[in-house]
Amino acid sequence: METSQFAKPEAEELLEEVVGVNRVAKVVKGGRNFRFNAAVVVGDRSGRVGGGVGKAQEISEAIRKAANRAKKSMKSVPMVGSTVPHAVWSRFGGARVMLKPASPGTGIVAGNVVRSVMECAGISDVVTKCLGSTNPINVMRAALQALEQMTGPDYVRALRGVDHVKATHEDVAAEMAAEKERQETAAQAAAEERSTKQEATQEEAHPEQQVEEEAGEESGDTTEAEQEAPADKPSEEVAAGETSETSETSEK
Question: Are 26 and 32 in contact (CB under 8 A)?
Fold first, then answer.
């Protein structure tokens, strides 16, 4: 038999957890009408979870109603690996719930109600704390509200307008080394420029001193030449004496 193209897709596998069943009574003229209410958490263990409450005269019918309402209210939960992105506090009625990230292998540190919510959402490493009321319905609502308050990295990057660039430790170290080298080069260039400016300023401020220094150097050169000249005269006199002696010997 050929399947129709309009056949309904197979229902996704959802995890249902009953977190609380309570018997309630309504007082009427003829007496009391007893009914049951149930709180159910539903999730796909992949980041989608929802909760609902149902009421009926039978427990099974109350659970069915609660499960249907939970499926309709399922919402996506941001996750970082197997834990939550950040710590958050939430309050519903008299119940307060805290969710805090945990390292892999920690597991779910929570009570029965919050544990069921985390398991249905697919969160396997988290630390939680419940304060105030222990009413299962209020605790369930507070835990779901805490998950709704979570913001993932992608949402924060889009909110800040920052592009996602995954950098490794080596890339960060190389960038830091290049930045340090650039700073050293800039500091060296600035020091050279300052020294050049100082020399130019000194030349402009004391031109006469520079002229005197140059004149002193020239006079020093002349005195050295004069001192060298007398040293040559004795050698010339010795040479003249030798020539006169040779002439006398030749005459004889």
Answer: yes
Pairing of strands 31-43, 15-28: antiparallel
Q: What is the pTM of this model?
A: 0.59
Q: What is the residue range of 32's domain?
A: 15-157
Query: What domain count does the chain have?
Result: 1
Q: What is the CATH number of the domain that holds 45?
A: 3.30.230.10
Spell out the per-residue pLDDT of the chain, length 252, in tens. Answer: 444 444 444 456 889 999 999 999 999 988 899 999 999 999 998 889 999 999 999 999 999 999 999 999 999 999 888 899 999 999 999 999 999 999 999 999 999 999 999 999 999 999 999 999 999 999 999 999 999 999 887 777 777 777 655 555 666 678 888 888 998 999 999 998 888 888 888 777 666 665 566 666 666 555 555 555 554 455 555 455 655 555 555 554
**Encoding tokens for residue 18?**
């009953």
Could you tell me if residue 185 is inside a domain?
Answer: no
Residue 219 lies inside a defined structural domain of this protein: no
- Asked if 19 and 40 count as a contact pair (C-beta separation under 8 A), the reply is yes
